Structures are given as C-alpha cells and as structure tokens.
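Practice problem 4.
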C-alpha cells in the first residue's frame, strides 16, 4: 500500500456545523483545512467523552431487594431439603421430576399470593385517588 491519496473520500466529507461546540478545535472555523489523522486521534477522547454514561453501575439500588434475614424458608426447605440442590447431579430422575413438580406448585402458590397482594394495593391506591379527586380527603387534613 502506498501513501494516502489527497483524493481520499473521507477527507472530502464536510464536518458537521456543530463541530465547533465540543468538536475538534481545528474544525471550529468555516473553511478551515480538514484535520489531520493525528488531530483526529488527539481529539478522540474528548469527542467520545460527551457521550459517556451517567455515574452509577446501572443496577437497581440494593435497598429494593428484600431483607434475606427475615425470609421464611420453611416451605422451601420442606420441598427441597437443605443441601438437596447441591447434590442435584446425584439425584435419580424420579426424584428430580418430583422436585420440579413440587417447586412449580410452590411457585404458583407464591405468584397467586403476590397477585392478590398487588390487587389489594391497586384497590387502595384507586380509593385514595378517588378521595383526593372528589375532595373527600386532602393533604391539609392529614397535617391537623
């Protein structure tokens, strides 16, 4: 490969008009010569920095997770004895099928309870909203 030709199509592309604000300083003035490869490399970090993520790890706060200390695992322990999952590769097929069926039934039961709880929460929120909209309740009444 020889040296780059001055007819390089990438060098003929105009820079965006916004390049002066946050873009390479050499592109700020209209009619300025196209930046060299070295200029582009030098400005790469600044160019990419304005598209960075906000601080944080992108995960939900741990405060939203349930407190593991207060979780009652007696039902789960009755289904899958403590340590049973650690020996799962040694379990016979019939025992695994039984375990899957029992865990599926338990999960369905927990889901049913969760749905019922959220239906109650939704009903309470709807009633509170209705009371505030109709004037039956007000913030001021809570403060007195």
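Answer key:
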């Amino acid at each position: 490969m020889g040296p780059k030709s001055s007819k390089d199509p990438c060098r003929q592309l105009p820079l965006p008009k916004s390049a002066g604000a946050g873009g390479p300083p050499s592109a700020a003035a209209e009619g300025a010569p196209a930046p060299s490869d070295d200029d582009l490399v030098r400005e790469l970090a600044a160019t990419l920095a304005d598209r960075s993520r906000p601080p944080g790890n992108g995960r939900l706060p741990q405060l939203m997770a349930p407190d593991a200390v207060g979780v009652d695992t007696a039902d789960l322990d009755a289904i899958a004895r403590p340590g049973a999952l650690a020996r799962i590769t040694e379990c016979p097929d019939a025992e695994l099928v039984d375990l899957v069926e029992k865990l599926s039934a338990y999960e369905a039961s927990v889901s049913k309870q969760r749905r019922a709880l959220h239906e109650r929460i939704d009903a309470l929120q709807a009633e509170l909203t209705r009371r505030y909209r109709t004037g039956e309740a007000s913030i001021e009444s809570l403060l007195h």
